[in-house]
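re: that chain from earlier
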Amino acid sequence: MRSEAAANHKGFWARQAQSELRWHKPFSVTLDESRAPNYRWFVDGELNVSWNCLDVHLEERGHKTALTFVGEPGDVRHVSYRELHADVCRFANALSSLGVKQGDRVVIYMPLTAEAIVAMHACARIGAIHSVVFGGFSAMSLKDRIEDAQATVLVTADGGWRAGKVIELKEAADKALSQGCKSIRSVVVLKRTGHEVSMQEGRDLWWHDVIEGQSPVCEPVWVNAEHPLFLLYTSGSTGKPKGIQHSSAGYLLGAKLSSKWVFDLNDEDVFWCTADIGWVTGHSYVAYGPLAAGATVVIYEGGPTTPHPGRFWQIIEQQGVTIFYTAPTAIRALMKLGDDIPARYDLTKLRLLGSVGEPINPEAWMWYHEHIGRRRCPIVDTWWQTETGAIMISPIPGAVATKPGSCTLPLPGIDAAIVDAQGREVQGADAGGFLVIRKPWPAMLRTIWGDNDRYLRTYWETFQNRYYVAGDSAHRDKDGYFWIMGRIDDVLNVAGHRLGTMEIESALVAHPKVAEAAVVGRQHEIKGESVFAYVVLRGELPTGAQAEKFARVLRDWVTEQLGAIARPDDIRFANNLPKTRSGKIMRRLLRAIARNEDITQDLSTLENPSIIDQLRGAESASAVKAPAKPAAARPAAKVAGKPVKKAAKKTVVKAARKTAKQAAKKPARKAVKKPVKKAVKKAARKPAKKRAALRRKK
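^ sequence. v structure.
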């Protein structure tokens, strides 16, 4: 398929759209480039996204389970495709009765329940544009998004369950609406937790009341292929929220195809992506892609360790999950709890594992492979973004050999490259630069809602509108595999050498006593920037002389793995790292703390607010600074501006390459070869003498 796509880019995508999507009016124009880089795909075609995800399955698999909802308190609900279709139609009719019409915006601020998926599809069915706001966001964040979208209806809930507590969604919604949001006419409230909430007469309506008496049939509104399906606001940046606008046909095509290609979905699979629908992963691989492919999808409302640390593995066992897709941050956090916890559960139905959200370090990859996949399951390490709409770079099971830490190769039809600051493609193994996409693809964002100039500035102007700029730095190895180093602003410039924070984090986590690590840069009067590492250990938090001693051990360890240039100047030990409720490390917060800056970002999504004082170096944390004159060591890189050579990564690559040919010939259901696992583990343990000494000290 890659060669076909390379030979005829437009023709390849036209054939995929014709075969994978059901069209009310077929398209005749595949790609309109007249207003590039505002590209438009399948511009004269018409379809409906909800119809393509639900109605197309009713005859053949209407009885099949579409959604399995698991609530944090333990309630479980199975919803068939026929039942989901009826629920969507009832709520679509309810929205129409509230005056919602094609093109209107509806904001969804809900816990991860079946009704949240229903609300998304109900909007799609009548041509309304939905904008899901993550339930962990603050009232102010909700207000900003409602006002930017000029939404007319808000769909929320009395609350949701998270880590044994009620998340007060209706209370936050009321606060947001009290401070503005004049465009909102109606608020629909799902009764989830059952606790008492205020209801404003004339505005607030209970979900169960608005659907009462509504017909389970709703004819879809056929929309143009380019009609906006949804807006999704990126979080974590300062200033006005950035509303990423995705189309109907192109987005659905990318979500469906990548679900089939990357996850090898078949009719018997039970697919669980742990993402909330407030993030793009929850849109593409919960609400749309797997349903368009006819899969059974598991959704879970609560926290991964509530009411016990084995909750994820218990759900996999009880619901017969065959494909599991989660974030490296979650993997590392669960890894820290011990190998014995997943060992208690029957995970034998799993056949494929996935990773999303950030690069996965080799140590976490091996734990995931050994303790969750039980050495049988291939792992697909995926790279993509809110803006790309769907997975862009990933192994295809059975066709592409995996390498721990690499997202491997672009999917068919995706023209990814790495360029230097002048836009020239970099040459040579391990040469790094800007990750760019050179040709448009159907699932790409269309613009930033209400601010096309910002769209052009953010994603295109860097290289004169020639390439889509992802904002990530990367390099390719001699086999052409992509290795993501992190965000461009996460690449440190230490004494003229470019260091990827992910490289240093991987080196730290490769130490047998380290569970998690996050690296940021801070200003240094001589080197420009220095390396500041936050480290979470397996076991007790070290203090005093013990902390200083182990910090020296870790500095030496990083020096051996990457060279002296990557040696951390500061190491701060803590019990946890600051994460959002979706599991992502809040790196901008860590940078602010390391640089002693005021914290200005929105902390409403912070899962563990109490950790901030500890990270600042309070009594409960251990902050250790390197001696003013560290011992000399060999230089780590020879050319300024080039990525540092990665010794640990090289050995991993070398080990994995041994079975590349065999893996490419294996079907997706075949186990990953044990020699790969052994070789990688052996590579990760070099140098042997020092590793052995460290393990004896444990």
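The first strand starts at residue 31 and ends at 32.
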